[in-house]
């Protein structure tokens, strides 16, 4: 929760991905009480998306819109002017350690080809092989969870990912 994040002393930047139907109920405490610098809201959530992005931007933070695998890109085009990122879920949200949905690569690529100026984030099922596919389709950032956390050597898993994509 946000209380734990308040206590973390780090120079690292981090994101908040609000996987909730009513982000307006949760955004204030996360936005005002953590050091997070990027906030991601689901396209499927309810509420005034433009207003939520405005609240984020007023605090000097970045806003992103998240698309579940079945969400049509066309349904969020009107919000592209008010977001800093678009995040494609390459798993169905909810359960940890799901396999990467390969058909999402085409969706990411199609979006990237028509909206090169919008940074793409990809979240779900990322490992050394799927990371390569996501980046090849246009992703600029990857959210990696189980590949690192389930690894017997998390530092090695991170090194393997970094080795694949020299900075």
Task: Provide a concise account of the structure shown.
By secondary structure, this protein is an alpha/beta fold. It has helices at residues 2-7, 27-33, 49-58, 104-114, 128-137, 146-149, 154-164, and strands spanning 15-18, 38-42, 62-67, 85-89, 120-123, 139-143.
Query: In this structure, how is the largest beta sheet organized?
Result: 6 strands, parallel
Distance between the termini: 31 Å
> Helices and strands, in N-to-C order?
HEHEHEEHEHEHH
Number-wise, the strands total 6
Structural class: alpha/beta
Output the number of helix runs.
Answer: 7
Shape: globular
Write a structural description.
- There is one protein chain.
- The protein has 167 residues and is of the alpha/beta class.
- It is built from seven helices and six strands.
- It has helices spanning 2-7, 27-33, 49-58, 104-114, 128-137, 146-149, 154-164; strands spanning 15-18, 38-42, 62-67, 85-89, 120-123, 139-143.
- Strands 1-2-3-4-5-6 form a six-stranded parallel β-sheet.
- Helix 2 (27-33) links the parallel strand 1 and strand 2 (38-42).
- Helix 4 runs parallel beside helix 5.
- The chain is globular.
- It starts with a helix and ends with a helix.
């Amino acid at each position: 929760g946000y209380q734990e994040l308040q206590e973390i002393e780090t120079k690292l930047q981090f994101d908040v991905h609000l996987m909730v139907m009513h982000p307006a109920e949760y955004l204030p405490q996360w936005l005002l009480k953590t050091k997070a610098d990027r906030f991601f809201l689901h396209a499927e959530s309810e509420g005034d998306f433009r207003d939520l992005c405005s609240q984020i931007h007023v605090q000097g933070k970045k806003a992103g819109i998240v698309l579940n695998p079945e969400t049509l890109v066309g349904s969020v085009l009107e919000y592209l002017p008010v977001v800093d990122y678009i995040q494609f879920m390459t798993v169905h949200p909810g359960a940890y350690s799901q396999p990467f949905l390969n058909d999402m690569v085409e969706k990411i690529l199609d979006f990237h080809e028509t909206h090169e100026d919008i940074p793409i984030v990809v979240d779900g099922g990322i490992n050394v092989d799927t990371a390569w596919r996501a980046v090849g389709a246009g992703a600029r950032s990857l959210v990696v969870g189980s590949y690192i956390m389930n690894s017997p050597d998390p530092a090695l898993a991170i090194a393997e990912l970094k080795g694949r994509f020299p900075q």
